[in-house]
Design a protein that fits this description.
The protein is α/β, with parallel strands linked by helices. It has one domain: Rossmann fold (3-Layer(aba) Sandwich). The protein has 9 helices and 9 strands. Strands 1, 2, 3, 4, 5, 6, 7, 8 and 9 form a 9-stranded mixed sheet that branches. Helix 2 (78-90) crosses helix 3. The relative contact order is 0.16. The mean pLDDT is 95.
């Protein structure tokens, strides 16, 4: 496991899951949910900055990092239920959430299903679930078929290259992200994430099911200026009047960032999240 000064590590046992959790700081809790193919270490720069004000909690989600599950099977609400169990086990009644990529899915599911558990939420690189899907979204999904039918041993290094990043990542950074995926359980989970979690959400997204619900949690959705086509302007155009679907929702840009904006511009991500959390007490 990579070392980051200031972080403490523990394992939390819930039904069928042993979740690795990295924590830093004291104060009100902020839950940081990593993307794919990443793990808690994604927050190595953002976490310590937020920890000056908050207790930062970074779990490895099911199928990632150092979390171990009784089964590799992943369904649509598996990670949302994992989060609820984790919050209960840690004695956390309400949290703020900062989530990226894959982590945005259980975060949004939690905000819709249990808004009383989420004070505020910042989502990176993923549009609101009520946004209409269209052909313009296809370039943003170009990686999905490969991952849905992932073959064991196939490298995922291409996910950390342009256009997903604004500038090339150091080889040692890529290796740190990908090393846990070589565990048989985690490699098997790659297909499950894209079959169960993401595939399970697609029908609701395609049919506009979330447009019939209301997002009550204050939210900010942030997009890298280099993350074509999913830029802030694209998302605004395809969402329309967000007040029809959410009580409070902001759509913003992250300068110098592409999809993996926490590596491209971690300082901007930290500043946006902290400002939003302060403004939404």
């Amino acid at each position: 496991m990579p070392e980051v000064p200031g972080f403490a590590h523990e394992y939390v046992e819930t039904l069928g899951l042993r979740t690795h959790v990295a924590t830093i700081g004291v104060g009100e809790p902020v839950l940081l949910l990593h993307g794919f193919p990443q793990h808690w270490w994604q927050w190595r720069q953002v976490g310590p900055a937020l920890a000056e004000r908050y207790r930062v909690i970074c779990p490895d989600l099911r199928g990632s990092g150092w979390t171990c599950a009784a089964t590799t099977r992943i369904e649509r609400f598996s990670m949302r239920n994992d989060l609820l169990a984790l919050l209960d086990a840690l004695g956390l009644e309400r949290v703020r959430i900062l989530a990226h990529d894959m982590g945005a899915i259980p975060a949004a599911q939690l905000a819709y299903a249990q808004p009383n558990r989420v004070r505020a939420m910042v989502i990176l690189s993923v549009p609101p679930p009520f946004m209409r899907l269209g052909l313009g979204m296809l370039p943003a999904m170009r990686h999905v078929p490969k991952l849905r039918f992932h073959r064991r041993g196939r490298s995922l290094e291409y996910l950390f290259e342009p256009p997903y990043v604004a500038r090339p990542m150091a080889p040692e950074t890529v290796e740190t992200y990908l090393a846990p995926l070589r565990q048989p359980q985690n490699e098997e989970a790659i297909r499950e994430i894209y079959r169960g979690l993401i595939g399970g959400e697609v029908p609701s997204l395609a049919t506009g099911a979330y447009r019939k619900e209301r997002l009550k949690v204050p939210c900010m959705y942030a997009f890298g200026v280099k993350d074509e086509p999913l830029t802030a302007s694209f998302v605004r155009a395809h969402c329309g009047d967000v007040s029809r679907f959410a009580d409070h929702l902001e759509i913003v840009s992250v300068d110098g960032g592409a999809h993996f904006m926490t590596d491209d511009n971690p300082r901007a991500v930290q500043a946006l999240a902290e400002d939003f959390f302060v403004r939404t007490p």
